[in-house]
Amino acid sequence: MEDVIGILVAPIIIFMIFVAPIWLILHYRSKKQVAQGLSKEEFTALTELADKAEKMADRIQTLEAILDAEAPQWRNRA
Predict the structure, then answer these.
(1) pLDDT tens digits for 20-74?
(2) Which residues contact 68 (CB under 8 A, 6 or more apart)?
(3) Which listed residue, of 3, 12, 28, 39, carries a Cα 20 to 30 Å from 57's Cα?
(4) What is the pTM of this model?
(5) Do 74 and 67 form a contact (C-beta atoms < 8 A)?
(6) Does the keyword Transmembrane helix apply (predicted)?
């Protein structure tokens, strides 16, 4: 019975000394990074994409207006 307890205690001690602290450090570090939000580069990229999307929406609206004037039935064509 003491052999069984000795066999179980050694891995638990090794886990508690080496694996658990590293696991906790990495876990809370990743939580901190998520809580910080976007980096400057990510925010800049997101802003540029939003600007491009607005310009594309304006172009689509202009193209639809041109098509409505030149070919009023273009929307009914499938």
Answers:
(1) 999 999 999 888 877 788 888 989 999 999 999 999 999 999 999 999 999 989 8
(2) 74
(3) 39
(4) 0.52
(5) yes
(6) yes
Phi, psi of 38 (to 5 degrees): -80, 145
d(CA 8, CA 15): 11
Domain boundaries, the chain: 1-37, 38-78
Structural contact between residues 45 and 37, judged by C-beta atoms closer than 8 angstroms: no
Structure tokens at 42: 């990510």
Phi, psi (5° rounding) for residue 61? -60, -40
Return the ∠ at Cα 53 (arms to 51 and 55), rounded to 5°: 70
